[in-house]
Amino acid sequence: MIKIAICDDEKVIREHIAELVEKQGANCQLELFAAGDDLLAGEKHYDMIFLDIQMAGRNGIETARAIRKYDEQTVIIFVTVVKEYVFEAFDVGAFNYLIKPIKEERFKEVFDNALKSVNRRQSKTAEPTLFVKGTKHSVLLKQKEILYVENKANRVVIHTVKEEIEAWYALKKLEEELGSGFYRCHRAYIVNMGHISGYTNDMIDMDNGDRIYLTKDKYPEFVKKYMRYIDDGGAADV
Asked: What is the pLDDT of residues 7-39, one digit of tens each?
């Protein structure tokens, strides 16, 4: 669901843009505003905003500057009757602009490109998940909620922040499916580096208090990968 705001002090323009959006057939949730202050109330996030530049009270440029203080990602498309304002609009990170009266062909071109930008951003920020067929129930897990995976005989136990899940799974297969934030520290364990609180040359401390075996031969490689993980902003220093 794409969240879209339309802000214009002319009702006929707001409704016209809304009709054009609906014609594109995208899965959207629309909210219409008659003033910049109304749009800013609550500092709500929108994936895309159509923003009139020449509005009474707080104009579109001032509104966009206020938006950028709490949301750097939203795609802003300015709507104006005066082209000269367009150059100032790009100073606040505008994605594109539309000139009134809005032509449907031009709108479709701008909207399609904006939608692609939104989809790219959402795919980058989407949380990695893992679908697990457990012995008792199947569940879609957020990878960040997995603490560690433990191999037990012919099954695995996935320890999460909420529960333990037993599954008929090969540890090697799980290692391949989990993201780069996980490390196979022992033949029987995979740890989520985001939940490590400390380590020695043969043990890893998890932030829930559990201690996991670390193969001594893997210690140099583990330290290297964990330090790289921290440097990339994946976790706090231990």
From this structure: 999 999 999 999 999 999 888 999 999 999 999
Domain containing 15 equals 2-125
Report CA-CA distances (Å) from 219 to 131, 203, 204, 215. 30, 9, 10, 7
Chosen domain end from 83, 105, 125: 125
Query: Could you tell me which residues come within 8 angstroms of residue 128 by beta carbon, excluding any fewer than 6 positions away?
Result: 142, 143, 144, 179
Q: How many residues does the chain have?
A: 238
Domain CATH code at residue 31 = 3.40.50.2300
Give the end of a domain, one of 74, 93, 125. Answer: 125
Is 0.90 topped by the overall pTM?
no
Distance CA 129, CA 141 (A): 5
